[in-house]
From TrEMBL:
The chain crosses the membrane at residues 12-29, 35-55, 67-88, 100-121, 128-150, 231-254, 275-295. The lineage of its organism: Bacteria, Pseudomonadati, Pseudomonadota, Betaproteobacteria, Burkholderiales. It comes from Achromobacter kerstersii. This is Bile acid:sodium symporter. Pfam families: SBF_like. InterPro entries: Na+/solute_symporter_sf (IPR038770), Put_Na-Bile_cotransptr (IPR016833). Keywords: Membrane, Transmembrane, Transmembrane helix.
Length: 325
């Protein structure tokens, strides 16, 4: 009986599954999309504010100066993924349509997520300061590097203008609340530190909101109806293979470089993710005149799979003993 219980999904995984089911049946439409977008932004802002209030200045400085970890994460995001997409072409391309494979290559060129990468790192009790620095920097670098990578990796892809609006949005939504939390730390830092359950609730709540809003958008775009079933099944396999290899190689690199368990967790969750929020606007510019829906479909599916898989991994890492060797 105890073995069967260990095989069952944990509570947070069940929450994720229920959220996907709800979004599939009752996706947000029209004004609801705007409302849930604002709620998600507020939840993410609160998450960063609480992290800013909880983290010491010494921990943040250590995160900023951990150049070896950041370099490894950036290499995974902007080097390992594109190489995987190209190297696996003989295996992946026959499983999907040409447009979907183009979308897979585009997916591999994108920056990492910010919100969910940091939230999962926090849930798993990894190096949150390093995750904040790395994930935020990845989004900023992606504005410059992704168009270059797409132009190099994807045939016949044009260049895209740099969107400074995206930089401003990152600063406003993520860095500003974090800085405000740092300023408020002297007054509320001890109070926040004693309420780990509250921070966990915000972490998990923000992820569930991201899942619902992202999946609602995918459903509204005709996720289950615009692609033949065999190609859709093949696409799921492609996304799962790429994610599994990315997670495995990231975990292997963490051990090879002798990172601590906290740093290996940060590498795992920051180095294996791709941003839906950055990807869709970029696709509209880079692939103007193409079937953008088919090109972003791999990203939408990969985004859902990575959230589900990383949710399970983060929950398991979070249950480890407090003291790690």
């Amino acid at each position: 009986m105890s073995r069967l219980v260990r095989l069952l999904p944990d509570r947070f995984t069940l929450y994720l599954i229920c959220t996907v089911i709800i979004a599939s049946i009752v996706p947000a439409h029209g004004q609801g999309v705007v409302i849930f977008g604002w709620i998600t932004n507020i939840a993410v802002g609160l998450l960063f504010f609480l992290h800013g209030a909880r983290l010491s200045r010494e921990a943040i400085i250590a995160g900023l100066t951990h150049w070896k970890l950041h370099l490894t994460i950036f290499s995974a995001t902007f080097l390992m993924f594109p190489l995987l997409g190209l190297a696996l072409k003989p295996v992946l391309e026959p499983l999907v349509t040409p447009e979907l494979y183009l979308g897979i290559l585009f997916l591999c060129c994108l920056p990492a997520t910010v919100q969910s990468a940091i939230a999962f790192t926090s849930m798993a009790r990894g190096n949150v300061p390093a995750a904040v620095c790395s994930a935020s920097a990845s989004s900023l670098l992606g504005i410059f590097l992704t168009p270059l990578l797409v132009g190099t990796v994807v045939a016949n892809a044009g260049s895209a203008p740099i969107s400074f609006d995206a930089v401003g949005k990152i600063m406003l939504q993520l860095l500003l609340p974090f800085v405000l939390g740092q300023f408020a730390r002297r007054w509320i830092g001890a109070w926040v530190h004693k309420r780990k359950a509250m921070l966990k609730f915000v972490d998990q709540g923000s992820i569930l909101l991201v899942v619902y809003t992202a999946f609602s958008e995918a459903i509204n775009e005709g996720l289950w109806s615009t692609t033949p079933i065999p190609a859709l099944v093949g696409l799921v396999v492609c996304c799962a293979v790429i994610l599994a290899l990315a997670l495995g190689l990231s975990a292997l690199a963490g051990k090879m470089f002798g990172f601590s368990i906290e740093d290996r967790i940060t590498l795992l969750f920051c180095g294996s993710k791709k941003s839906l929020a950055s990807g869709i606007p970029m696709a509209q510019v880079l692939f103007a005149g193409h079937a953008v829906g088919a090109i972003v479909l791999p990203l939408m599916l990969f985004h859902q799979i990575q959230l589900m898989v990383c949710g399970v991994l983060a929950a398991r890492y979070g249950k480890r003993p407090e003291i790690e060797g």
